[in-house]
Amino acid sequence: MANEMICLDVINTMWYDYRGTGKSEDRLTNPKWVAYFMKDWDIAHLSYPSDSIIRELQHLRQLMRGILQKTTQNQLPSVEALTQLNRFMDKAKRSPKLFKKEDHYELNFVSDQQDWDAFISEIALSFAELFTNGEYKRVKFCKNEDCRWVFHDNTKNGRKHWCSNDTCGNLSRVRKHRREEK
Questions:
Q1: What's the whole-model pTM score?
Q2: Residue 179's CB: how many other CB atoms inside 10 A?
Q3: Which residues contact 63 (CB under 8 A, 6 or more apart)?
Q4: In angstroms, rounded to a whole number, what is the distance separating the alpha carbons of residues 63 and 14?
Q5: pLDDT at 4 over 80
Q6: Can you give the three-state secondary structure of the chain, one letter per residue?
Q7: What share of the chain in percent tops pLDDT 90?
Q8: At what angle do helices 79-89 and 116-132 cross, to 10 degrees?
């Protein structure tokens, strides 16, 4: 199972209207969106998640968001939060596999199981990997308070403020300009 930054995709399954309408949607409860997510992360072979799996994903989402809220404010996550994250990762069963890639070899750890427990563990592992490689310092919350999107700042100087310059960045600049006109 691909692991990249799936944790950020899961954190962002709680959608808020960036325009400030107050609308929001828990995309984990939207069957069409879940089907898209499963296809996108190459887990369409799994059955549709049960209500208990959805609740577990929602709990993990809330846990990861809470940890990021602490770390983006230069605070340490609680011992309890780390214990909960470790419980999610406990279900991960991986085996090392050597793969030939063009002119070199790569060692990857591949999940032994193909079920929701394994996938949820991979999400938690993706999140933990942000911390072990220092990338958590580049994970930010969009400065548009209506948006609440979490994103990885991959800019060279690490000073990105918005999830997207075209949407939230532009909206924020327009709002600032209108405030200054008054």
A1: 0.85
A2: 8
A3: 81, 84, 85, 88
A4: 13
A5: no
A6: CCCCCHHHHHHCCEEECCCCCCCEEEHHHCHHHHHHHHHHCCCCCCCCCCHHHHHHHHHHHHHHHHHHHHHCCCCCCCHHHHHHHHHHHCCCCEEEEEEEECCEEEEEEEECCCCHHHHHHHHHHHHHHHHHCCHHHHEEECCCCCCCCEEECCCCCCCCCCCCHHHHHHHHHHHHHHHHHC
A7: 65
A8: 130
Strand partners, 111: 94
Q: Which residues neighbour 74 within 8 Å (Cβ) at sequence distance 6 or greater?
A: none
pLDDT band of 111, cuts 50, 70, 90: confident
Cα–Cα distance for residue pair 91/59, rounded to 1 Å: 16
> Could you give the CA distance from residue 71 to residue 123 in angstroms, rounded to a whole number?
18
Question: How many CB atoms lie under 10 A from the CB of residue 148?
Answer: 18
How many angstroms separate the CA atoms of 122 and 135, rounded? 17
User: Which among 121, 115, 112, 128 is positioned nearest to 91, based on CA atoms?
Assistant: 121
CA distance 47 to 116: 9
